[in-house]
Model the fold of this input.
Amino acid sequence: MTTLTRETPASGDGADPDERRPAGPLYVPVRIGSAGGHQLRFMRTPVGARTAVGFTSPERLTAALGPRTRWIRLAEPALRTLAEPLGVVVVTVDPQFTAPFPGTSRTAPPVRPCVRRHGPDEIPPELSRPVSALVHPFLD
Done:
């Protein structure tokens, strides 16, 4: 996993030649917005900071976020340019610690319709006492 911040030099000026940088485009998770366009999906770091996420291959993205995740290809500078106006200054490449996506093995409990009871014939026996039996004990 590589975390890139604005302070991390992109290349050239003071860049560490041994530091691993993503080569080529990143596969960035997106969602479809209300107007039908693509919107970046931001994640959280283990300490809770918002981060833009990119993966170096579609297989890594699928392994981390699931097969139904939509994605687009972006270069790291383009991802940063889109994320910064939204207050996200950290870019994480190939995150290794992600919450597992819900698989198909978990099923929701069956949904039962709400039953509404109306009328005196459908009142449960424990609630069908006459009003005189509902006298408060301190009022005797």
